[in-house]
Amino acid sequence: MNQVYDKLMKCAEIVKAKSNFEPETALVLGSGLGEYAKNMDVKSEIPYSEIDGFPVSTVAGHDGRFLFGYVNGVPTVLMKGRVHFYEGYDMTDVVLPTRIMGLLGAKKLILTNAAGGVNTSFKPGDLMMITDHISTFVKSPLIGKNIDELGVRFPDMSHVYDPELCDKIRAAADKLGTKIREGVYVQCTGPNYETPAEIKMLRNLGADAVGMSTVCEAMAAAHMGMKVCAVSCITNMAAGILDKPLDHKEVQEAADLVKDKFEKLITEVISTI
Ligand code: HPA
Question: What is the CA(143)–ligand 1 centre distance, in A?
Answer without folding.
Answer: 25
